[in-house]
Amino acid sequence: MIPISTMPWIALLDDDEDDFTFWQYGVETWAKPVVLKWFLSAESFLAEASRASSKPTAIVLDGIVPDDDQESWLTTFLGHMCCQNIPIFILAGQFSQAHQERFLALGATGYLLKPSSTDELQAVILQVIDKQ
């Protein structure tokens, strides 16, 4: 068995505990041996990722910064040493072509719709895992 400290991990930056629980179920079901780590703020993620013995294999951003500040945070993540060459996904409650184009142009790996069923969750988890 792989020690948890050296297991590959995905960072979920989300302010909703229910979302984390749902995602945790999905990762445990369709993405073993990957671990999901939950962060309530960008600052807490950057602090943890800077200290961690391994980088995350993917980052999923949802609901941790105001809408008008998402672009600057995405730029911060893309430029931070702990996030180099790591897929960064923007998770959104609604599809917006303009937002998708803007985030992808800035360097996000993908723009994902927030899953609301287990089938949608499986598809999103597999899409994130596929980009690692």
TrEMBL record:
The keyword Phosphoprotein is annotated on this UniProt entry: yes
Residues annotated with 4-aspartylphosphate modification: D62
Gene3D superfamilies tied to this protein: 3.40.50.2300
GO biological process: phosphorelay signal transduction system
PROSITE patterns referenced in this protein's UniProt entry, alphabetically: RESPONSE_REGULATORY (PS50110)
Keywords of this entry: Phosphoprotein
Stretches assigned to the Response regulatory domain: 9-129
Database matches in InterPro entries: CheY-like_superfamily, Sig_transdc_resp-reg_receiver
Full protein name: Response regulator
